[in-house]
Amino acid sequence: MVDIPVGYSESLDIVLPLIREVARELDGAPEWTTRLLEEPVVAGVESMAGGVVTIRIIAKCAPNENFPVSREIRERVKAALDAAGIGGPQV
Q1: Counted domains in the chain
Q2: Terminal-to-terminal C-alpha distance of the chain
Q3: Residue 91 placed within a domain
Q4: Which of 32, 40, 80, 86 would bridge 59 by S-S if both were Cys, CB 3.0 to 4.6 A apart?
Q5: Per-residue pLDDT tens for 21-59?
C-alpha cells in the first residue's frame, strides 16, 4: 500500500485520474514487469484530516519488491502532480 497526501483544496476529479494513469504507465514499463504482479489499483480516498486528503494505491508485488515498487510509485506520482501544478498539503 502506498498513501499519497494531497492538499484538501485540490480537485479529486483531476488528481485521481492522474494517479491512475501513473499506475497504468508503471504496469506497462518493461523494467517493472517482474516486480509488479498486476496493475496497481488506486483505491481512492483513504482519509481526510488537517487539510490533507490521502489517496491510497494498492500494488501487488513480487516477494521482497514492496519497497522498490512503493518508492517508484511515489516518485512517479510526485513528478506527475508537479507537472500538473497540483500542490501537496500545506504544513
Answers
A1: 1
A2: 23
A3: no
A4: 40
A5: 999 999 999 999 999 999 999 999 999 998 999 999 999
